[in-house]
Design a protein that fits this description.
Number of helices: 10
Helix content: 25-40%
Distance between the termini: 58 Å
Number of strands: 11
Oligomer: single chain
Largest sheet: 9 strands, mixed
CATH architecture of the largest domain: 3-Layer(aba) Sandwich
């Protein structure tokens, strides 16, 4: 092999190495099950555009997503609520500074079994149901029968927003059936005639029945115009200001293509 051939070979090798460093990498994303469908669609599209990148996804709730950022066990923490002060304090004690990126909007919609006749509940009625004060559907205009209360666990961002906006920080009845995900709530309500639960907008389907709140439907339009009373932002958190692949992925979600994927996932795009 002559000197010229060796030079060409060296250049090719160096280009391959540089290419793998630029386009390769792994991202670990954890947290909210509400944000998970958005993250899944975005990850699939991003990896298709960047074949050298591998993205792993898991749920577990908003609290676990933020904790993973603080602990350094994830690159991105998904959350369907904003960071709590106690989480800020914990992060500060470890010299970690979580940075929030709002990637979408969402409505939290009460749901009942498809056979339930109830179509509309006030926030006061929802609160009394989840306090255990209203125990039978006949008390709110439904067919007589025991109300089965289904809620989320305390690490859930959806639960956090529900507790603030509906419960006004009062405690959900201890006998409530607690499930770990939006999908779990949908399944429980689908298979339990007397059940009531609440889920993010993207989890509504024909197997369950969405209930209006104060006469207002939980929809994209009513969330954007501010009329639906149980709405929120959806977030991705990073450990400090993101760089490299992490920044590229978040920038992708905040692009026109990424916001189209937000809509496809059933949530509400920012623009």
């Amino acid at each position: 092999m002559n000197k010229f051939s060796k030079l060409i070979l060296a250049l090719i090798v160096s280009m391959v190495i540089a290419s793998s460093q630029v386009f390769g990498g792994e991202l670990d994303i954890k947290g909210s099950t509400t944000v998970l469908p958005i993250a899944q669609k975005a990850a699939e599209a991003y990896m298709a555009q960047n074949p050298g990148v591998k993205i792993s996804l898991s749920g577990g709730g908003s609290g676990n997503g933020i904790k993973a950022i603080i602990d350094g066990t994830a690159d991105i923490g998904n959350a369907s609520r904003f960071i709590k002060q106690k989480e800020v304090n914990l992060a500060g004690s470890k010299n970690v500074y979580p940075v929030p990126f709002r990637i979408a909007l969402d409505a939290i919609v009460p749901i009942v079994n498809s056979q339930n006749k109830v179509k509309d509940l006030t926030r006061a009625q929802l609160k009394d149901i989840y306090l255990g004060k209203i125990k039978d559907w006949k008390e709110v205009g439904g067919t007589p029968g025991k109300i089965i209360v289904i809620s989320r666990d305390s690490s859930s961002g959806t639960f956090g927003v529900w507790k603030e906006l509906v419960m006004e920080k009062d405690r959900v009845i201890p006998s409530a059936l607690t499930v770990p995900s939006n999908g779990g709530v949908v399944q429980a309500v689908t298979t339990t005639p007397g059940a009531i639960g609440y889920v993010g907008l993207g989890y509504l389907n024909h197997d369950i029945k969405a209930v209006k709140v104060d006469g207002i439907e939980g929809s994209e339009a009513n969330t954007l115009n501010g009329s639906f009373p149980i709405s929120r932002g959806l977030f991705m958190f990073t450990k400090g200001w993101p760089e490299g692949e992490i920044m590229d992925f978040i920038s992708f979600i905040l692009s026109r293509k990424g916001q189209d994927l937000v809509k496809e996932a059933g949530s509400i795009p920012l623009f």
